[in-house]
Amino acid sequence: MKIQIEGWDSRGFRCPDVTVSLLVNGSPGKVALIQMPNGTGKTTTLKLIRASLTGSAEKWSADEIRELRSLSDKSISQGKFVLRLLVDSKKLVIETAVNFEDGNVRYTTSSPLLGGVVEGWQPPDQIKRFMAEKFVSLFIFDGEFAADLLDSRKAKATEAIDTLSQLDLFDLLKEQADARWEREEKNASGKSKQFLAELRLKEGKLKAKLANLNITKVENTNKLISNRDRIKELSKSLSEKINENELLKIERESLLNKKTNAEIALNNALDSFMGDLRYPQKLFEGFSNQLHDFKLSLDNAKLPDTSSRQFFIDLCEQKICVCGREIGVTERDHILEHAENYLAGDVSGVLNAIKGDIDLYVDPVFKTDFKDLRDVLERFQEQYFVACTDFAKFENKAAKTQDDEYDKWKTEQINLENECTEINRILELLDAPYRPNDDEGSLSIKSIDYQLRDTQDKIAKVTDTVDLRDRLNILRDVLLKAKELAKIELHNQLIAECNHRLRSVLSQSPLQIEGIDNHIRLLGQSSGSVGQTLAVAYVFLTAALHRGSHQFPLVVDSPAGSLEKLVRGEIGRVIPELCEQFISFIIDTEKDGFVPALESSAKNEICYITIFRINKNSERLLESVPQNLKNVSGDSAIVIGKEFFTEFTLAKEQENV
Amino acid sequence: MFRLKPEADDWFKGIYNRGALKTKWDIYYLCLMMGLAGSKASSATGAVDLVHYFIEDYKKSSRLIVTLFLSTHLKKLGIELSDRLEAKRVLDEYLDPSNSTALNSDGFRTMNEYAQGGFLLLAENIGNRPDDQVTFLLRYYDLLNKIASENPAWATV
User: CA–CA separation, B74 vs A383, rounded Å?
Assistant: First the structure.
């Protein structure tokens, strides 16, 4: 699926009345640069493009609609915005008509894929699922959204992956499976109506509770991640503050080294202790002695036997015994009866292996090495505690010499740590296992889920839908697991792909993604510069958007506003490689560094557009523009072409006054 | 199948899955040894599957673990290995040489009961759920030696 924007017409809105074409040599150019000074109606244009793609205008309030009315002609009663798209090279036109007086919106959709013009917002089914608001906001965005991807408080990155990868389809399937069973069991008549009604009431309550608990878990998990990130940031800032004083810095580093070394020594001692603890004979003298006694008893009892039970069973098949005597019925019965006194051959093998291991691993006399390891471990633990206490004392002492800002950060850190403890307590309750005496009041997700399944099983029994219920339960489990595995795999693939691209995009200041929790986590740092953040976001979004065979236009408001010139150049060079169509709403101050880099990469496939309000000052600017490159409508003008685009600056506009 | 009850899982949550206690089998082993030290077995009904084999960390000690379990259990049942017939009956009852653990289903079930018994001893004697691996393991070692030393079954060994 490939979606491209050909252009749009706008009439009667706050944004200029213009016809915008993004075509270069008859097809959508790889890059479209739309220069619109602030206050020209950029926000309105983007809002109308989003509304056309999502159908969201139907949800606008009357006041919201009136807010969009043209500022230059307050008497205008109607507005019309027509967005022209190409879907796999087939035209799709969405018209949004609003009545400012009534506050109404009416959509019309037309496409050969629909067989002509249809009333309402009716994009063809194959693209409808890509036109959900959540999805569209991932390819029409601004710098602020990009920063949110790396902000642990916003949890946008996983949301983006879920949406782009359509992982919610798993949930949709699960919902459909649940709905199917609900339909079946509701149609079935139960043996006891009252009992069934009670079960259904309970099922409803448990479902609602489960949904709430899951939301609580997600919220608390996100909060915990965000708090931990902030605590890390605060720790860094607090350390930096202390390090401003050279003497304190030296003392701090010395104590921190002691603490780190003590921790390493403790961990090594712990590994040795646990390694030995895995051998039972080292744990307790009695264990060691018992293992020896066991072997000794086997030897005394002549176990395992030199002959196995199978030998005597096989012997009974013979006519002549190994001693040369004939084996008759009496002898055969006698041998078979006593064969039971012998171990099966393979059990004998196990006993021999056990005896071998006792000889190999259990010392004849119990050694107290393990007790020594225990004492070493305790000693290292004490040393670690002392190092921690010394460091904490130093921090308290150093804190007293610091300013109010330090105190403020410290207080925030302590509060966040307390909050984390409370969140962990809540998460523990939510993650607790099911216990048989749990009731509907339990806060354990597993318990409520168990009770819900139990109730549904009872409903299934009463309504004779057990078989269907069982099959749907399997389907539900498979879908949950599949979603979980798909998510992990997608994260891993995306991280690898993004890091590969980042090595090229940020060649001057390499930055790598370490992981994706709910946000993009950068390797070795909590955040990058504003420019780096945007670069990572571009790379992440384009990598995620273009997975599979789908292509979407990337529409970005102020793409280079916050970037340093060097980064602008790097981003500009790489964007044409990241997507098939890049549409950028830009102001003149962003052009420096960014546009030349785009040009060097996109070559001749760039469409230059400048849209501005006409006033006395800007009228003269237009005079030199050839007629075929400009279009003036009411108080606005649109000029096509690189020359005007490059020359146009607010300063020049001012000079012409 | 080695199994452990969810409450044991829950109790160890603060120290499991990091540092030296990397696997659930570590938790199972600690419970089992405590159960054997106290000769205490308890029903493991409702226990959740772990694995059906000895994990890599316990490969070398696996037969010693099985032996200690068997010998403790035989002793509890009052069976002397010198009674050849009885010993053979019991060995046949708990061992399955075709299984990599050498245990059959009764062997697994009984061993799981000792692990559950050990967990109850731990929860009873240590009380609050542990939150520090080192502190817990030091207490564990001391407790195991105390319980085993006070257990008449080990006095004669």
Answer: 44
CA distance A315 to A475: 55
A355-360 mean pLDDT: 90
Instruction: State pLDDT tens for residues A528-551.
Output: 565 667 778 778 887 877 776 678
C-alpha distances out from residue A477 to A173, A447, A481, A528, B6, Å: 12, 16, 6, 40, 20
Residue A352: closest C-alpha in chain B: B63
The full set of domain ranges for chain A reads 1-139+552-657
Once rounded to an integer, what is the mean pLDDT over residues B2-24?
86
Mean residue pLDDT of chain A comes to 84
Q: At A140, give phi and psi (nearest 5°).
A: -125, 110
Give the global pTM.
0.56
Asked whether residue B155 is assigned to any structural domain, the reply reads no
Which residue in A has a C-alpha nearest to residue B94's C-alpha? A347
Q: Locate A510 and state its tokens.
A: 């390499």
Task: Considering only residues A558 and B112, tell me which one the structure prediction assigns the higher pLDDT.
Answer: B112
**Mind listing the pLDDT tens digit for each residue in A501-518?**
788 766 666 778 888 776
- In total, chain A counts a number of residues equal to 657
Q: Are the Cβ atoms of A286 and B13 closer than 8 angstroms?
A: no
| More confidently predicted of A656 and B144 | B144
E-state strands within A559-600: 582-586
Question: Quick one: average pLDDT of A460-482?
Answer: 84
User: CB B68 to CB A351 under 8 A?
Assistant: no
Give how far A264 is from chain B: nearest CA, Å.
12
A518 Cβ contact list (under 8 Å, min separation 6): A152, A155, A156, A157, A158, A159, A221, A222, A225
Residue A320 exposed, middle or buried by CB count within 10 Å (0-12, 13-18, 19+): exposed
> How far apart, in whole angstroms, are the C-alpha atoms of residue A377 and residue A399?
33
Chain B residues with CB inside 8 Å of A290's CB? 68, 71-72, 154, 157
Q: Is residue B157 part of a domain?
A: no
Mean pLDDT calculated for residue range A222-243: 88
State whether A358 and B64 contact (CB < 8 Å).
yes
Residue-level pLDDT at B19: 81
> Which chain A residues have a beta carbon less than 8 Å from that of B91?
343, 347, 351
Per-residue pLDDT at A210 exceeds 90: yes
**Alpha carbon distance A270, B134 (integer Å):** 7
What is the distance between the alpha carbons of residues A77 and A480, in angstroms, rounded to a whole number?
51
Check residue A588 and give its pLDDT. Answer: 85
Residue A13's beta-bridge partner residues?
A69
- Is residue B18 in some structural domain? yes
Using the structure block, give the residue that is written with the tokens 């000895």.
B54
- pLDDT interval class at B42 (50, 70, 90): very high
Q: With bands split at pLDDT 50, 70 and 90, how would you rate the model's confidence at A639? A: very high
The CATH superfamily holding the domain A1-139+552-657 is P-loop containing nucleotide triphosphate hydrolases (3.40.50.300)
CB B35 within 8 A of CB B114: yes
The beta strand positions in A331-405, using DSSP E, are none
Number of A–B residue contacts, CB under 8 Å:
135
Inside any domain, residue B58: yes
Q: How many domains does chain B have?
A: 1
CA-only gyration radius of chain B, Å: 15
How far, in Å, are A180, A449, A466 from residue A185 at the CA level?
9, 19, 10
Residue pair B41/B115 in contact (Cβ under 8 Å)? The answer is no
ipTM higher than 0.85?
yes
Residue in chain B lying closest to A268 (CA)? B20
Among A283, A343, A432, select the one facing B144 at the smallest CB separation.
A283
Nearest to A290 among B68, B102, B149 (CB): B68
Q: Which domain holds residue B37?
A: 3-150
Average pLDDT of span A301-308: 69
- Candidates A287, A289, A357, A376, partner chain B, best to mutate (most B CBs within 10 A): A287
pLDDT at B147: 96
Per the omega criterion (within 30 degrees of 0), is the bond before A123 cis?
A: no
